[in-house]
Design a protein that fits this description.
single chain, alpha/beta
Length: about 230
């Protein structure tokens, strides 16, 4: 049966600092490095194999994948990178401390920006220091000014359907190293989770999620590898 492994990047520096990150390119911490390595060791120990890997254009996801593959003795596996697997764009919240933002705008408003399905944060200013439009990795790509989870899903799913799903249906075993919200998009799709429920789903850093799928890529079983 087709098997898919989802891996959220290891702890990033801004995860540690409790800041909104989004598309800004933040590195992993020492803890994040160890989380990625531990994920790779666990996959090797449990006999989880892969034929092909997908990741975003963000360093924390790329590095997590490489560290995990190195522990699996699989650095030679083909890897495809695409912005459609990037984290949700947090717009004008990018770089802000989450608690300070709550203190300024109130818990209810920040909860709406963070956890509502279709309400995006305020857009990023064109002159923001975190503006990514001129970053060479996004040449020819329209960088969003902000995104809701609904917007993120609309970005991720076409890539899933055109690139990743066909590989799984051809018999390939696939690892996707990505981010909390881009992985939420995939989990929502694969597990049939409602709009209301998906906003509360937490995806921990550095813990492989295994999907055993049927031939039509419907979920047969989903589990965290660490729980087995």
């Amino acid at each position: 049966m087709p098997q898919l492994i989802l891996l959220r990047h290891g702890q990033s520096q801004w995860n540690l600092e409790n800041r909104f990150t989004g598309w800004w390119d933040v590195d992993v911490t020492e803890k994040g490095i160890e989380e990625a390595k531990a994920a790779g060791r666990l996959m090797k120990e449990k006999g989880i194999e892969s034929d092909l890997c997908f990741t975003s254009l963000q360093s924390r996801a790329i590095k997590t994948l490489n560290l995990a593959l190195e522990e699996m003795d699989r650095l030679w596996l083909p890897v495809e990178k695409n912005y459609r697997l990037n984290e949700r764009h947090y717009g004008g919240l990018t770089g802000l401390n989450k608690q300070e933002t709550r203190d300024k705008h109130g818990d209810d408003q920040v909860h709406i920006w963070r956890r509502s399905f279709d309400t995006p944060p305020p857009p990023m200013a064109a002159d923001s220091e975190y503006q990514m439009s001129s970053d060479p990795r996004y040449a020819g790509i329209e960088v969003p000014a902000t995104e809701s989870l609904k917007d993120t899903i609309a970005r991720v799913l076409p890539y899933w359907k055109t690139r990743i799903a066909p590989e799984l249906q051809s018999g390939k075993r696939v690892i996707i190293s990505a981010h909390g919200n881009s992985l939420r998009a995939l989990v929502k799709h694969l597990s049939g989770i409602s709009d209301d429920e998906i906003t509360g789903l937490e995806i921990p850093t550095g813990q492989p999620i295994i999907y055993d799928l049927d031939d039509d890529l419907n979920e047969k079983e989903r589990y965290y590898l660490s729980e087995r």
